[in-house]
Amino acid sequence: MNHRRLGFSLLIAMQMLLPLVLTGCWDSVELNRRAIVSGVAIDRGPSEDQKYVLSFQVIVAEEISGEQTRSNSPVALYSGSGRTMFEALANASRQTARFLSLGHIRVLVISEKFAREGIKDMLDVLERESDMRLTSLVFISKDQPASEVLSTMTVFSKIPANDLVEKLDTTSKQFGYNYKMEVDDVIRGIQVRGGGPVINGVFTTGNRDRANSNDNLKTITPDTILRISRLAVFKDDKLKGWVEGKTAFGTVLLLNKLKEFPVVIKNDNGYLAFNVYQSQVSVEAEAKDPEHPVIIIKITQQAALKESPNSLDLTSPEVLEKLSGQLTKEARSQIEGAVAAARKLESDYIGFGEAVERENPHGWKKIKDHWEDIFAACEIKIDADTVIRHTDMRGNSFQVY
Fold this sequence. Notes:
By secondary structure, this protein is an alpha/beta fold. Helices cover 33% and strands 29% of the residues.
């Protein structure tokens, strides 16, 4: 009987103590009390007391859903400054009646001015903050404040941050050298010895007077257009310069990130356009003597003829073989240009050092502290091959007689 009473007493005691450890969602915030942040812009402030200027692109849910709409802007931009990013976030949060929710940030835009000073500290905050996700896409705003990028109304998406994501997705699959670069990719790129990350550039063109209002969308030709172009290349965590055109294509080729891109060549009959729809690149090293490595670049491409406004006989194997040779020459030129640009900027963002480390880890430890000197003078061998697989929907071009 005493055992039953003791057990019953213990059961009652546990029932009374259990609620004390079951705290539940003690820090929960209701959805209607959250301000969903879709993008963040980071600018350099005018002084050390205002070093970080953060601008948060907040979604106005009522304007997006269509219910209770007031025909206002679908997003709002709130800015705050401070000595640290966390202080700037706190100052920005005082301007909104809701809690800034950072878990849905899709885009992070850093100003060129700040990128030249270094981005390591701000990335440390992003990696440390539990609400942030490391899959947010990173951009560098060229020649303008990052806040101007996120305050530009766009045609195809009500939310400018989403428009940036969709533009990058389109250009990475067709016609362009820009590819997805996430926060986690940038952090890993910074830690590469002698190199650094490669980040997409973004800027606006046109008249900015109406860029931040719905008036920018009311004409056939928008006053301001948000563009993704150029690549920002880094040494460690500092921006060293920009590459574009053939140099940018060669850079992304070496990183093996290109999916599909156009190539234009010229012969005696005029210009021909090709679509390179498959490209495989490998970067290896012969590093028995790590002080004098040989970098071997192998590239294979498959292309389709897209435009031939001339009288070439495209059914002739000899003609196609000659055109393939021109495409191969163009690929070599792109690679050589990318290597020359990296050496000029004194940054191995194209990954040659990683190839040497893979081939000879023990030797790499001996040279990693002076790899910059070796990178500037090491021998490069390029083995390229391009095959024209087809000429699309017709063979020879029609002629007017």
